[in-house]
Every structure is written in structure tokens, then in C-alpha cells.
């Protein structure tokens, strides 16, 4: 996740590279090669991730009326293989791949959002909601089948989750009467949290991946001054 100058970024039809790290599409697999130095403690991060989509999603969804921000669930269901040498860790499992892109920075368009994804027995459920800059709410509740086709569903009731250690607000959706439980928080940052939830969605007990993002926090000068210590900025 090192930020680098434009001279170290390249892209063609099947490959995108930033410095020594890159991802490329070989026809049926997205291959991600990682060669980085961690922060704030400098140690090697080396390895490869392979993501094999079960289906390719072809629809990008506008998150604001002017379509300045779009979200594309590229592979709602996938098989992931992780083979790291630094640190030495390997695993395989079910995964997901999406992309946010647009015409302006995220913090220009949004104050916050909450997102969750869960693999159901047949479908993948994705729940997305938040507030645009200025306070207008938005929400999406979708199911994707095994061919990547999507359809809207009625969002389940909203449930507040415990705040993070940095006091970032968290919320999700769950079936009426269900009590989602945070199993583990992988990332707890001043403006962002990513966690595993045990919850119930659309009549099924599921393990969901959940994130909350506070872009109001992100805009703070204090948080901005902290970013280089967590995400290095290289001049080469």
C-alpha cells in the first residue's frame, strides 16, 4: 500500500503496476504480486495472491445522483489462494473482489458508509449504505447468483454495532430479531474498521465481512498528518 509517484505507475489491458507490486489478469485468474515494506515498523511484505472468479459481474452501480462515484462488484464470488513468503503464511478460501472508482476523491462525496458481504448457500448478499456529503442517505441491498446476475432485495432492519477502539460508529443490517456479533476486528484505524460478523441474513446464519468508513474523520487534519506513518509515500 505504498503511495508512489506517477512515474512508478503503469497500466495496460491486463496489468496494473505500482512500483514493484502489480496485479495482472491471465485469462481466468487475477494474480497479485506483492513486494512492499510495512509501516510503521519496516519489514518485508512479499507474496502472491490468486483470485479465481466464480463469475464476472458486468454492472457498476452509481452511488450518487451525478454518478461521480461508482462501485463495481467485479467478482461477487471467488476462490482465493494466498501464498506469502514474508510473513510465511498460506491459506485458501472463499472470497470476493470489487472496485470503487470515480471522478473525485471519496471524501468529497461522502461522510460515511457501512458495507457488508456474506456468502449464502446459493447467493452472495451485499449491503451498502451511508451518507453523502451534506447528509443525504443512500443504500443498496443486492443478491448475486452463481452466474453473477444481481437483483435488488429489501434491506433487513438496521442494527447498531459497538463502536471501534477509535470510536468509529458501526452499523449493519440483519434479520428481525437477530443480534449480529463481532467475531474479530482485523483493522481498527482512526477512520476505518474491517471486521468479521456472525449474523443472520435472509433466513441464514452466516459469517459476514463488514466495514465502516468515516470520511469525516479522514478529512481531519490530524488524521491526514498520521497517514504517512501507516502508508509510506515513496519518491521513487
Brief sketch in words of this structure:
With 236 residues, the chain is mainly β.
Write the layout of secondary structure elements.
Elements: E1 9-11, E2 15-18, E3 21-25, E4 30-37, E5 44-53, E6 61-62, E7 69-86, E8 89-102, H1 106-109, E9 110-119, E10 124-132, E11 137-144, E12 150-152, E13 158-161, E14 170-173, E15 181-188, E16 192-201, E17 204-214, H2 215-219, H3 221-230
Antiparallel strand pairs: 1-2, 2-3, 3-4, 4-5, 5-7, 6-7, 7-8, 9-10, 9-17, 10-11, 11-12, 13-14, 15-16, 16-17
Helix-and-strand structural type? mainly beta
Assembly of the depicted chains: single chain
Mean pLDDT: 95
Radius of gyration: 18 Å
Structure characteristics:
236 residues; mainly beta; 7-stranded antiparallel beta sheet; 8-stranded antiparallel beta sheet; 17 strands; single chain
